[in-house]
Amino acid sequence: MTLRSGYSGLQIGLHWAAAVLIAANYVISDGMGEALDARLSGQPVLGLTPVWHVWAGTALLAVVAVRLIVRLMSGNRETTGPKTLAERAADVGHWVLYGLMLAVPALGAITWFGMTDSTGDLHVLVMNAMMLVILGHAAMAIFHHFVLKDGLLRRMIPLN
After folding, report:
1. What's the mean pLDDT when you consider all of the chain?
2. Using CA atoms, how far apart are residues 152 and 160, in angstroms rounded to an integer?
3. pTM score
4. pLDDT per position as a tens digit, 52-76
């Protein structure tokens, strides 16, 4: 595995593509319970929101899978000596986020395409957990930028 000092354009693009898909799907998720109920009862699913939500979730699953493959193939960031507790916590946080970003759309796909109501509540619960982890992720990026002033946030800005 190679060492890297920053993120590639592909990694940055995948990061922000996932962020946009997650934010958009979160905002437009209202009414998906009713859409699923209609689908399960054989009634027509009306409106563009369910179509967008399902396909954006499917796209997110693909983006996160590619992002994870790129992450595994691109190696770890450069480090000198053993990792600090904060660096280890960041690693755990990132892997938890990857797991949640895979679990949420996978559960949604199982619910929608498998036509099963039993995983719908779990999809919502895991999505809410993911949003909390994302808020923590964003808060730490802002903390690094404004308090530590260590340039960490600039590594994920495409116009760097």
Report:
1. 91
2. 12
3. 0.89
4. 999 999 999 999 999 999 989 987 6
The per-residue pLDDT for 79 is 64
* DSSP bridge partners of 4: 77
List the domain boundaries for the chain: 3-156
Per-residue 3-state assignment (H helix, E strand, C coil) for the chain: CCEECCCCHHHHHHHHHHHHHHHHHHHCCCCHHHHHHHHHCCCCCCCHHHHHHHHHHHHHHHHHHHHHHHHHHHCEECCCCCCCHHHHHHHHHHHHHHHHHHHHHHHHHHHHHCCCCCCHHHHHHHHHHHHHHHHHHHHHHHHHHHHHCCCCHHHHCCCC
